[in-house]
Amino acid sequence: MADPDEHSRGVALARAARRGDTLAMSDLLDHLTPYVGRICGRICGPAAAAGRQDAVQETLTAVFRGLRSLRDANALYGWVRVLAVREAVRVVRRDGRDLPAELAALPSPGDAQLAADIRDVLGRLTPEHRAVLLLRDVEGLDERSAAGLLGIPEGTVKSRLHRARTVFRRMWTA
Question: What is the H or E stretch that residue 92 is in?
C-alpha cells in the first residue's frame, strides 16, 4: 500500500472489524480486494483468471476467519500479503497451472517480444520458483521476508532462488 490514507483506512477498518463491527468487516474485505488481487495475479499469471479469483477468494476468507488473531492492526497489510502469497502458490500448485508471473513492468513498454520471452521462460518454472523470483527480484524482498511470506525456512528461499535463477538463465539462453 503506497497511499498512506488508504493504509490508515485499512487499519481503521481492521480495528473496527476486530471489535465485531460487521459493516467494517465487509468494508475491509472490499478495501483489501484490489491489493490481494494484485498479489495473487502476479503469482497466478494473467491468463489464469479462475485461479487468481480462487486465490483472492481464499485469501479474503482467511482474512475473515483469522482477523481476530491479528494482534496489531498496523501489521494488516503484511499479514494479508502472507496469506495472499500462500493461497496463490497453493492454488497454482493445486490446479497444476504453469502460467508465468506478470512481470510486464520489467521490459520496456515498447518491447513486446522481450516481455513475451520472459513470460515464456517464467511459465516453464515451477510455481515455487516463480514465487521466490517474484518476491526477491520483482518485489525486492530480502530472504528473511520472502521466507516469512512463503512459510519456508530462509535457507530454502536461498536454495530455491539459486535454482530458479540457474534454470531461468539456462532456459533463456537455450
Answer: helix 76-95
148: left (phi over 0), alpha (psi -120 to 50) or beta: alpha
Model pTM score: 0.58
* CATH number of this structure's domain 100-174, picked from the four choices 1.10.10.10, 2.60.120.620, 3.40.50.2300, 1.20.1260.10: 1.10.10.10
Q: How far apart are CA 45 and CA 165, in angstroms?
A: 19
Q: CA geometry: angle at 1 spanning 71 and 92, to 5°? A: 85
- What digits encode the pLDDT tens for the residues 94-106? 776 444 444 434 4
Asked: is 1-98 a CATH 1.10.1740.10 domain? The reply is yes
